[in-house]
Write a structure and sequence with these properties.
heterodimer; A: about 400 residues; alpha/beta; Rossmann fold; 6-stranded mixed β-sheet; B: Alpha-Beta Plaits; two-stranded antiparallel sheet; two-stranded antiparallel ribbon; 2 helices; 4 strands; elongated
Amino acid sequence: MAITMTKGQAGLTGNSAIAYAMKQINPDVCAAYPITPSTQIVEEFSSYVADGAVDTEFITVESEHSAMSACIGASAAGARVMTATSSQGLALMWEMLYIASGMRLPIVLTNVNRALSAPINIHCDHSDSMGARDSGWIQLYSETVQEAYDNLLQAVRIAEHKDVLLPVMVCLDGFITSHAIENISLIDDAEVREFIGEYRAEHSLLDTDNPVTYGAMTLPDTYIEFKLQQSEAIARAKDVVSEIGKEFGKKFGREYGLMEKYRLDDAEVAIVILSSAAGTTKVTVDELRKAGKKVGILRPRLFRPFPFREIADALKNVKVVAVLDRVDSMNGFGGPLFNEVRSALYELEKRPKVISRVFGLGGRDYTVKDAVQVFNELVKVAETGKVEMLTKYITL
Amino acid sequence: MQDKKNLPIGGVITKGGTAHEYVTGGWKKLRPVLDKGKCTNCLICWVMCPDSAVIVEDGKMIGFDMEHCKGCGICAEECPDKVKAIKMEEEAD
């Protein structure tokens, strides 16, 4: 897709914006296997490779398992590595995701969120990336095309930060964000290069003068220490995400934090929601605010590591909270975001009531009407102090 | 293992050849026994051993590295029919 820019502004789909960011990042290696709805990322990036617009070694592989395996090998060789996938593709990468994070390889992956089979469905929900939430990858969820583009640039810095050295997954909503054209601000190539800097790996498998082994076996005498080391690294990533989000804001005028609070300061009831559906909820909040209702939104941007203290602090004065998950954990107790937000709030002396609503699975529309219904329900709980249904599917 | 607080990031081993230092021959059920009188030093066993556990010095087969031999018996199997200089014996005997 040709990119026509006027004063740094371009109308791009989420996929084109990601492919363009990858072109600007110019990774050493990209191993990928196209899958709906992330196909255009791989398609357009491979055009950049074919046109000589990047120096990237593009590895065409026979599956996503191989894609992630090739990314791991290349990253262990000291390369800056990127890939993109969706849904079943991410699921097929599963065992390799854990190997990438366990070997502390700063790979950057774009996941265009799509429902998992069965039944087969190509549309948006978060069952793919939420299934991988404990794989040791840092996860950023993007609301818009602009944020997806900005997140990808920051992801390189976060992953390669010496206190972190972990893979990062940048998520955006399938079709809703990946295929919708949005007018976004692109950063100049030279400024991107300066922002991401050069990557110098501590070790390289190709350095035959200093041979190293990656992926060696550890027994009960050390395995747990390596896991502690990894756990501390992902916990440290929280501050790194904040720092880099601030630096990005200073340089390019768009600052990013761990979460976005929308009209939350004096809100009595609030919705916690990820990604593009927050936009719909914001419109709803604006409308309800006009009618004098004290409603607000908390949109976590960073989901892994989970910023539990900051989330508890943001919600401490709210009376009732609905956590909307675009995925069901199939645990009989609400979605993953609900479980973690509710757990984070347990630390508070005076806790808001928290309910779980599962919405929009398999690309089902989530509209202003749906958000209004949730807010009305929250207001009722605030008035009566009684939760009638703790967990429920909406948008049915 | 050394100081557990200073383990290399991600379990990277920062030097080569460390497999030799790690003893892995402890679990074998059978052990190879060489009859030097029969051995012709053809070194087929040395070629075939998956664990590099056949010790050769000056072109001659001199025995096994029991700290790395797993007792798989490939050496005994591959030893030519006319020679059969290697026998597998129960480790327990």
